[in-house]
């Protein structure tokens, strides 16, 4: 299997996991996007908003070197000390639209990216140390690790919601 087919497969698997867990939470009666588990992890809504921001960051800021496509949502979900992972109150459909549009933009870009672009080494003063020296394709792999890390958080919220008092 070539890298392009593998990445498309990862996009699909990531989406399926995300949608399954969001649906399970809703079926269990968790419509409160501000629900934050006792463990202290980020709120349900913050997690799904942050997943859209991960696509936005990797493609638009890091790979393309430009601004995020949706600065309002992007900067709301940074998860830094200014919000402590709290929920900002954006509706679920807006969070899902953000994720969907950023995923679509990523796939459109990825389909058209040359081998040279995928093998380009990330460098320069605006590239965070963690990504500096990595190829674009490796940065994409890191993005999916991050997205699925947050899918794991969604799964943990299901367990927390199931056992809440």
CA-CA gap between termini: 47 Å
The beta-strand count equals 0
Total number of distinct structural domains: 1
Number of helices, counting only DSSP H or I runs of 4 residues or more:
6
Query: Which fold does the CATH topology refer to?
Result: Four Helix Bundle (Hemerythrin (Met), subunit A)
Radius of gyration: 16 Å
- CATH architecture label: Up-down Bundle
Low-confidence stretches: none
Averaged pLDDT, please?
A: 89
- Secondary structure class reads mainly alpha
Tell me the fraction of residues in β-strands, as a range: under 5%
Succession of helices and strands: HHHHHH
Return the CATH class. Mainly Alpha
Helix content: 55-70%
The biggest sheet, with number of strands, parallel, antiparallel or mixed sense and barrel status, is: none
**What is the global morphology?**
elongated
Structure overview:
The protein is mainly α. It has one domain: Four Helix Bundle (Hemerythrin (Met), subunit A) (Up-down Bundle), CATH 1.20.120. It has helices at 3-27, 44-63, 71-76, 92-112, 115-118, 136-162. It is built from six helices and no strands.
SSE layout and pairing:
Layout: H1 3-27, H2 44-63, H3 71-76, H4 92-112, H5 115-118, H6 136-162
Helix pairs in contact: 1-6, 2-4, 2-6
